[in-house]
Write a structure and sequence with these properties.
alpha+beta; elongated; five-stranded antiparallel β-sheet; single chain
């Protein structure tokens, strides 16, 4: 009884009894203890039988057996009822979900026929949304679905499906592209399911299709980005927010020497060169934190220890909350650019043959020396030197020997100079010097004498021992208180006087001596002296070359008469003739020039020199009755001279009557084959009248507006307008080229190919022309511009460059002026104009590698200008001189980068 009482007291039994009682509607409850159960069982058994123990026990077992049976039945029925309801609900939900998936969802289903035609027997109603093709079209004919596939995918699709069926695969997937009803391409991801019977026969084949176009577009985009990342020439470095490297591209590996595996997880500071201090990097990271980007020039170190410059741009990548998650660094090794920049600076400021400063750098150094002499109240000597006997060396031993001699001369003179002195090669065998540090004329003349002694010492050359000498002209500051160009001209004039005095000597310029008289034009009473000079042979021809800037070739020579005055020295035509106002003398001199020049042209032809000759014809000669007959006679005298080798240049006529009289004469010249140039063209009324009514082929621009165009944007606009006008009327333009390469480059870019002037050569005698032709080389900057097609859309770059250059000239002039000559500091307007230009040009040129470098050099130039002006205002001479040198270097760097930016954008480079 005790064991039974324990069993019946378990929860399972209690629960089963309750379920039975509930099923039969009983209201009794089970006893709470074994004793109660036993008592209840005894009472119940007694009611069925009066037999005492045995009857009671048998009835109790029977009762519990029946109770257990009914409890099990009740429990099973209740469980079945509840779970069937749940199953029915789930079943109905699955069916509804299935309907929604294949009617509204992103997965379409197609059931295929099992014959060889691959007929689409069934397509779910959402197939039009997934494939963009109606179900009716798919089931309309065998092969309808296959025809949707693009040709490049069709054969592959069929081959893969056949292969999978041959291998009895039950599922597989394919990706291919189709053309939908709208004519658009869609990428489809196809999951195919196949069922087979026991004999491996195919009994069912269906495909579940998903439009995968968006994912494929993203994949292709990522592939493209990966390709760009791998193939871009710029170096790329991606870091996390902490600055640890996550990835680099092959260009990074090539440039730095580090492999990708070596730098992953490292900090970019492994490239640190040590050239920048902590403030530099602190400023960089502050900019990156504030502006989310930084750009500039930095020096880094390769794996092999080599230090190199790079142009670096760092950009921060943010998440949706504005937090930095990546840094992307893009940099380019600009070692070649630096080397080219140094080479360009060398070409711009130094003579290639001797390595000495050229005329441009000499002028800058002369300005600095003058400023220092004014501040310190000291003396300067400016000397001009020309070698005596150099031409025979060229003629006897050749030009290579002459070049070696010039190099030896330069080395010998350089060895005699101090650091504060400057010597430059002006051209040919001419040199200029600035000497400082002496306290008297005698001291300077003693130095000049030592130069004469050293240069008269023979030079040991491979060909022979060569003996030459030198003629030197010298002028002294402050007695000669002129501008740099005038000082050099005075020294040049004195050098010619030294040659006239017998060579191998020096001659000092005196402001109170004959050289001063030389600046005054002869009076009208001197007309008879000019007439006698023609008879005595004192008039000689000099020729000013004109060149084709684009072709880099000499185009012709302009004949210019010079008077070797017995007292005043060599006088050009403009200094002795225009003030005389003597028509008869004018005509006589003009005919003499024409005869002598055409004779020289004939000799050039005999020596196979293809030069065109330009004769300046005055109004008096042109309108004289005998001019045409005279010209025709001269052409007939020289059979090798063709009429198209000759052109006449006339000045603008002042009146309508003169123009009317000149027009038929010029037309007759053209019938002879002689070209006509309208000389000294400017924007005056007479010039434009002549342009309209006179038969001309070329315009010669007035040198005043051409010379001013580099410093004055208004003059530049005038020159540009005149060149555009001339090109519209099919006229060639000849322009005066001042003494720098920038003016020639600008003229060339604006469409003016022909130029002449001291920037190319000074006038020379006819006998010197063959040697000059062999030695002359076009300016490298002109050659680089000649490869560019003139395009006015890029002219703003030129204008920006000129504006900055003009501003720099003003600032430099102010800094080099004496204290009592200075007014208010010049405004730095050019830099403001640069900022406006830069913002406008940003969209067009931002991808050009020179563009950010230009901005950096402009910042450096502006900072140098401010620092120099501050030093001037503090009146600290030593600091000012140092700042002036730094400013000149910064200026030249900026102008060089601006030039290369122009070259790169016009040629389409990046």
């Amino acid at each position: 009884m005790t064991a039974f009482s324990k069993n019946i007291d378990s929860p399972l039994w209690k629960n089963a009894a309750r379920r039975v009682a509930y099923f039969f509607g009983a209201s009794f409850s089970l006893p709470a203890s074994p004793e109660e159960i036993a008592g209840q069982a005894a009472r119940t058994a007694a009611s069925f039988s009066g037999d005492a123990p045995f009857a009671a026990t048998s009835s109790l077992f029977l009762f519990f057996a029946l109770a257990l049976l009914f409890a099990a039945l009740a429990w099973g029925f209740i469980w079945w009822t509840r779970h069937m309801k749940t199953a029915l609900k789930v079943g109905y939900g699955i069916e509804d979900l299935h309907k929604r998936v294949f009617t509204e969802g992103p997965i379409a289903v197609i059931t295929w026929g099992l014959d060889a035609s691959w007929r689409c027997e069934f397509a779910s109603s959402n197939v039009a949304g997934v494939l963009g093709v109606s179900a009716a079209r798919l089931t309309s004919s065998p092969g309808a679905y296959r025809s949707l596939l693009l040709p490049e995918d069709r054969e592959r699709f069929a081959a893969e499906r056949d292969q999978n069926l041959r291998e009895k695969r039950r599922q597989w997937n394919q990706r291919y592209s189709i053309m939908d009803d709208a004519g658009k391409t869609r990428w489809i991801l196809d999951y195919t399911v196949a069922d087979y019977d026991n004999g491996n026969g195919l009994v069912f084949l269906s495909s579940y299709l998903i439009d995968d176009s968006a994912q494929m577009a993203m994949y292709q985009h990522m592939q493209m980005l990966s390709g760009v990342f791998q193939s871009i020439k710029e170096c790329l470095c991606v870091t996390n927010a902490a600055g640890l490297i996550l990835d680099v591209n092959p260009a990074f590996e090539r440039t730095t020497g580090y492999s990708r595996n070596e730098v992953l997880g490292e900090n970019p500071r492994i490239l640190k060169s040590g050239r920048h201090n902590d403030n530099f990097y602190r400023s960089m990271w502050n900019d990156l934190a504030e502006k989310r980007s930084w750009q500039g020039e930095i020096w880094n170190r390769r794996k092999n220890g080599e230090v190199y410059p790079e142009l670096l741009s760092i950009t921060s990548v943010l998440d949706r909350y504005g937090n930095v998650i990546r840094h992307i660094g893009v940099f380019t090794d600009i070692s070649n650019i630096k080397q080219q920049q140094q080479a360009m600076e060398r070409l711009a400021h130094y003579d290639i043959l001797t390595g000495l400063p050229n005329r441009a750098l000499f002028t800058d150094r002369l300005k600095i020396a003058l400023a220092k002499a004014r501040r310190d109240k000291t003396m300067l000597a400016i000397a001009y030197l020309d070698l005596d006997g150099f031409k025979p060396v060229n003629d006897t031993y050749g030009h290579k020997a002459g070049d070696r001699l010039l190099y030896s001369v330069a080395r010998r003179m350089t060895s005699m100079l101090r650091e504060s002195d400057t010597i430059a090669r002006i051209g040919g065998d001419e040199f200029a010097m600035v000497l400082s540090g002496a306290s008297s004329h005698a001291d300077y003349l003693s130095i000049i004498g030592r130069f004469l002694t050293q240069l008269s010492t023979p030079f040991l050359q491979p060909e022979a021992t060569v003996s030459i000498s030198a003629s030197i002209g010298v002028t002294f500051y402050p007695e000669d208180d002129s501008d740099p160009e005038t000082l050099l001209r005075h020294a040049d004039q004195s050098m010619y006087q030294a040659k006239r005095d017998g060579r191998a000597r020096y001659h000092a310029f005196s402001p109170e001596g004959p050289e001063k008289e030389k600046r005054a034009a002869p009076s009208i009473e001197d007309a008879a002296r000019v007439d006698h000079a023609l008879d005595r042979g004192e008039i000689s021809l000099y020729y000013l070359p004109s060149v084709d800037l684009r072709l880099g070739k000499v185009a012709g020579m302009e004949a210019q008469p010079h008077w070797r005055h017995p007292d005043l020295g060599l006088l050009p035509y403009a200094e002795f003739m225009p003030s005389l106002q003597n028509p008869e003398l004018d005509i006589r001199l003009g005919k003499w020039v024409a005869r002598a020049a055409i004779a020289d042209l004939h000799r050039w032809r005999e020596n196979n020199l293809p030069l065109r000759l330009t004769l300046n014809v005055t109004k008096n000669l042109l309108l004289s009755p005998t001019f045409l007959a005279f010209l025709d006679e001269q052409l007939k005298l020289y059979p090798l001279v063709r009429s198209n080798d000759l052109e006449i240049s006339i000045l603008a006529m002042s009146g309508q009557d003169e123009i009317a009289a000149a027009a038929p004469v010029l037309e007759a010249c053209q019938r002879l084959g002689v070209s006509v140039v309208l000389g000294d063209f400017d924007t005056s009324y007479s010039s434009f009248v002549g342009l309209r009514r006179l038969p001309i082929q070329r315009l010669k621009l007035n040198q005043g507006i051409v010379r001013g165009m580099l410093g004055n944007p208004d003059d530049l606009a005038v020159v540009e307008s005149v060149i555009s006008l001339a090109n519209a009327f099919k006229y060639q333009v000849v322009a005066e080229c001042p003494e720098n390469s920038a003016s020639g480059a600008l003229l060339l870019y604006m469409g003016c190919d022909l130029a002449q002037g001291y920037g190319i050569s000074r006038p020379m005698e006819a006998k010197a022309i063959p040697d000059w032709l062999r030695e002359w080389r076009p300016d490298p900057e002109w050659q680089s511009i000649a490869r560019l097609k003139p395009d006015h859309q890029y002219l703003p770059i030129f204008l920006m460059r000129i504006s900055i250059q003009h501003c720099c000239d003003q600032v430099l002039t102010y800094a080099l002026s004496s204290d009592n000559e200075r007014a208010a500091p010049p405004p730095l307007e050019g830099f403001s104009l640069f900022d406006r230009w830069y913002q406008t040009a940003l969209a067009r040129h931002a991808n050009n590698s020179y563009f950010p470098l230009l901005k950096e050099t402009e910042r450096h130039l502006f900072s140098s200008a401010q620092t120099m002006l501050e030093a001037v205002q503090r009146a600290r001479a030593d600091e000012t001189a140092m700042r002036v040198d730094a400013f000149i270097v910064a200026r030249d760097q900026f102008l060089g980068i601006a030039q290369r930016l122009l070259q790169s954008v016009t040629s389409g480079e990046r």
